[in-house]
Amino acid sequence: MKGKTFKKAALYIALGACMASMAPLAMAQSVTGAVAGRAEAGQQITVTNTATGLIRTVSVGADGSYRLSQLPIGDYRLQVTRDGQSVGEPVMVNVSLGGTTTVNLGGDGSVVNLNAIQVVGSRVVNRVDVRSTESATNVSREEIARLPVDQSLASVATLAPGVIGGNSSFGGISFGGSSVAENSVFINGLNVTDFYRRQSFSSAPFAFFQEFQVKTGGYSVEFGRSTGGVINAVTRSGSNEFQGGVQLTFEPEAWRSTADDHQFPDLNNGTAYYRASRDRQTFTKTNVWASGPVVEDKLFLFAMFEQRDNKTGNTNNLGTTWSSGESDNGFWGTKLDWNITDNHLLELLAFSDEGDSQTSVYGYDFDTATRGALTGRSMSESGGRNGSITYTGHFGQNFTVKAMYGENKSKSLTRSSADELCSLVTINSSYSSIYEAMGRPTVSCHPGGSVVDHHDKREVGRLDFEWALGDHLLRFGWDHELMTTDRSTRYPGPAAMSYTVYGVTNPDTVLDNGATVPAGVSAYVMGRRRIDGGVFDTTANAWYVEDNWSITPNLLLNLGLRVDNFNNKTAAGTSFIKIDDLVSPRLGFSWDMKGDGSTKLFGNLGRYYLPVTNNINFTFAGGLIDERTFYVLDGWRQEVNPVTGGSYTAPNLGAQIGPVDDQYNVSVGDLRQSVDRDIDAVYQDEAILGFQSAISQAWSWGVNATYRRMKNALDDIRINHTPCGPTSTLWPIGNPGKSLTIWGTTEMGCATDGWITIDTSRDGYRKGGSGEVVGYFEPRRTYKAVEFQIDRAWDGKWAFNASYLWSKSEGNHEGPVNSDTNYGDTGMVQHWDHPANNERYGYLFNDRRHQIKLRGSYTLNEQWSFGSTLTVQSGGPITAFGVTWPNDTLGAASFVTEGSGGGSGWICVQNCAGSYEQRVYEYSPRGAFGRMPWTYNLGANVTWTLPVDGIDLKARFSVYNLLNEQEVINVRGRYEANPGVYRPTFATGTRWQSPRYAQLVVTWNF
């Protein structure tokens, strides 16, 4: 009795803590599963949730089929009855996220399809879901607890075949050859995907979740706005049993291996440094949770609080500064379930992932490992408060309604007391030899980073219906999202400019503004001013209808149609980009080949659309200042840090070299010139064919083939020629390689003002010097893959899963980001800044030809258990990017910075310093310089359980990257600095695998 009282007290303490800090209530869609199968006509099938007592009953149809849908995930007791009398013994059934557990029953109420299922303990678990036409991987929190998987949604997703880490410079994950900006993430049905750039999502502690589903293809029309993949996660819920727990996680610095340092020769005898061996991190967190009934069988609560303490210390790449970071943040979250009746349910979710951190920056001498004076401090804030509420109503046995509303908030704020006083100054590797001779002094009084004030808010509402009509299960619904961005960014300092110091690469160095560095000048400074700001809305609406038609008891046909509408608006609320009636047909089938649920052949065809991110209307409807100004470096001077009082060395800006380079400015003038009048959305077509079979109750295997094709892109396009003749550079958002309709004016050379159409496959770009008019190459991206998988399900003793994926990703553009040059401004990358940027079709950045993934767990006895994961994948292609192409004086890439301007597939090999018409080029295909090395990532863990009845105490020790592999995973792709001037850093690394580290997790559940 005392134990129950203690648990109940813990529950109410947690409830009070969460409710005290909750945001205003919001609402969200629930995530469920189903039980279906065959039985004798006229029988009744009743399922009872063993945790909450929820009861659902359905009658078996005249054709012998039954289905209980929209069931909260968990364990159920299934009982067959006839005329109010029980038939046979109850059967325990597990309902998984987004899946259908098939249980075929005989006249005596017993399970007859034993070859197709597995019995774990007393629960029936599906081996093959013959009622699904999609490609998905389900992982429960119990399975994750047995494996060395890092505690993040992205780490869970990469367990699935075909899912890999994206460009490590800006993070994210890639599904099936897509870029990192094409995925969607849902928590309890609430879309928590970042809509500004689509490269991140709101987060929650690992312990907050119950089950994960990773959809890699063929997903239902209920899901849209994604051309990559979907992570669908559901949180834990309360039950009729009072429970609680404490979990402590330790990742001390002493358990982390040292990262390798790297250095490579660069221009002007300079050196490109990547110093990381002194980097340090210590992380601890304490998680407390409680759950139980507020009202037995009716109202249930799950509540959690997690305190995180993260301390970091690291040098910059040059080793001239030391940054000490500290964050001490708490997460809170709660889930409330109200079974108003067995047929009417209400769910409430609320959580906050708000956090802040402080970074102190000091001078640093890498050679002596000595920390110098404080340069300054910066503060950052992230995350937000999120919530959802969902009503589910079952009206009769065949009709279900869901209604939900939700809010997803996030912010990104970065500020420092030096923002108004100090400018950013960095040293390019081409100047490093001179800088080292100076003693590598501190060159700025600012701790680093732009001044950012960014707030995003998504409001979601949706209605979903499900109606069973004989052989047809009809699903239809509507959803609406209002996404608001309030953002401003600038560089710090009085002039809002950042400065980079460069060494002169050769006597005829040409800058991006077309000017040549004056004779006798050995170094110059590039000042960049980038300012934006405004508040902008985007709305996304969709309706869908889907028919799951059981043509025969063994053949299921899925017929779906989704129609999306996107409306990106200006700050005044008028439409900037409006794309309506985007029709997504989807067709799938699943054939239960043996009729017992053990073997299926499945396939699907579908179209998927990608929305326009908010950074597009923010930049083009709000305006962007992005200018470069070049100066002679006129020596250095000593200055006093106005914040700390210390001293630092600042560059003297000498004579300006050439005009201000303002070609990347986006002015808000006539918006009819900013966007194609007839613009089309980005879409991808996909085809999947697969086979899956249960070998036994424990073992199953499968194989499938996937083909994806993206033939459309939406991005800013450089236009300096129209049918009216040459014009100053415009940057309209359009579909490159297709027709572009914008407003023409007499100032552009048109006879009258009016709409003009440019066939951008033939027109739009006029070469400098030669005056030749050309167009842009048609965008194309294809992905082909064959996947093999074998699985041994957990039976209380051991489990194993192995997959091999062969894939090929080809085309001339990666998608809405450009990993080749580490440029992640979604939908505004350099693919279409110059025709040379997209001329080459070939292997793309996310092309990993071979992927092998293994995971397994084993219990030795009640005290000791073990787990391991292994991921092996071949390296991505190494592609060379030049800066010009034949018969053109305009750069296809920046002559100064490596990340700006994309690059060309043409390398100048002769007469490169002469006039453009004398240059001789060699063509370099994508992947011409081989591939990065294979990577191996082995993880292992051991779990000790206290062998005392009634006490659930565990300690899990995990090691990640056990072999301490530190292979390169990203390289520099710029081959040239100026035409014919080779960059020695080409194909050298910029990112490597994270070193080995260990983690101890101690869990006490009561």
Automatic annotation (TrEMBL):
Per the annotation, which location comes first and is thus the protein's main one? membrane
Annotated signal sequence is: 1-28
Query: Locate the TonB-dependent transporter Oar-like beta-barrel domain: which residues?
Result: 313-568, 582-971
GO molecular function terms noted in the UniProt entry: carbohydrate binding; siderophore uptake transmembrane transporter activity
Q: How does it sit in the membrane?
A: Multi-pass membrane protein
Q: Using the record's annotation, list all stretches that form the TonB-dependent receptor plug domain.
A: 132-230
Keyword vocabulary terms for this entry: Cell outer membrane, Membrane, Receptor, Signal, Transmembrane, Transmembrane beta strand, Transport
Q: Which SUPFAM superfamilies has this protein been placed in?
A: Porins, Starch-binding domain-like
Q: Does the keyword Nucleotidyltransferase apply?
A: no
Example of a GO biological process term: siderophore transmembrane transport
| Origin superkingdom | Bacteria
Q: Which Pfam families match?
A: CarboxypepD_reg, OMP_b-brl_4, Plug
Gene3D superfamilies noted in UniProt: Carboxypeptidase-like, regulatory domain, TonB-dependent receptor, beta-barrel domain, TonB-dependent receptor, plug domain
Location in or out of the cell: Cell outer membrane
Which residues, by range, are in coiled-coil regions? none
GO cellular component terms, A-Z: cell outer membrane
Q: Which family does it belong to?
A: Belongs to the TonB-dependent receptor family.
> By what name is this protein known?
TonB-dependent Receptor Plug Domain
Q: Which organism is it from?
A: Pseudoxanthomonas wuyuanensis
The record lists the lineage as: Bacteria, Pseudomonadati, Pseudomonadota, Gammaproteobacteria, Lysobacterales
